[in-house]
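EI: anyone free to look at a 328-residue chain?
SC: sure, send it
EI:
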Amino acid sequence: MTTYDESKFLSVKDLNVTYKSGEDIVYAVNGVSFDLAKGSTLGLVGETGAGKTTIAKAILRILPDHSTRSCTGSVIFKGQEISSIKNEEMQKIRGAEISMVFQDPMTALNPTMTVVDQIAEGLIIHQGMTKEQGREAAIKMLETVGISGDRADEYPHQFSGGMKQRVVIAMALACNPELLIADEPTTALDVTIQAQVLELINELKVKQNTAMILITHDLGIVAETCDNVAVVYAGEVVEMGNLEEIYDNPKHPYTHGLFGAIPDISKDVERLSPVDGLPPDPSALPKGCYFSPRCPRATEECHSRHPELIHLEGSHFVRCIEVEKEGK
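SC: here you go
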């Protein structure tokens, strides 16, 4: 039995992913590194197109073959390097030990199969259950996520958006994975259903001591759910730390911008303060700091030198030349 450091239950080191788009090379993920402890939750936060979903797909090794140009770096899960193991070995891990809740339940569900058969499929493949055992366990899983067993033989189109998302969560959790990757699991849901789904994920996570990577752009959800936060911009981590370090003492201008765009009922302001501009084109990243064209604090050096991720204190890291200078 392999022994490993539980504080490094999942360890991602220098992950780089590029895509090809016509003649262009798209630099989607650029040197991402982080550790995830057993039973803890990491929030990957950032705007659409920051590379969050690509990080998740690279961990699971489900990047699209037709458009992926390269994927390098190290992904160590429970002490085992999984980025270079054979596909057959990875298939045994994927779905059984690491599962993913996809962002859009309609693309994650097969419209031609009943929901019970879709959940049972993983149990039959990974846990060696018979068809009858798989069906029975799948119905229990549906009931666990709040769907009555008498709806087990219905098809995805017969469910509402919130119910479909519950089915996807049931599929992801059916084999009791040790790591759950949830890709914006509440984006398409109304606020009430969103709260129910988050509560459900948290309950099951605590019950099964599941580690989780939560991908979102909603800092409110992160505050409710996560232990640690990694802020992602243009495919790289620009700030990382535990919840208190990031929320009580944000250092990167981009993190400040994300917080400035959140409504605060305790403050009387006429307008929110969104981050000006748009994220850079990942096929033509700017020289120097990738955030410098949008940064209110940018200097000449920011436009010419790419900053390293520096350690501040505790588990707090930041990638910013100005913060680096303040510490000297």
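EI: The two ends are 46 Å apart (CA to CA).
SC: 👍
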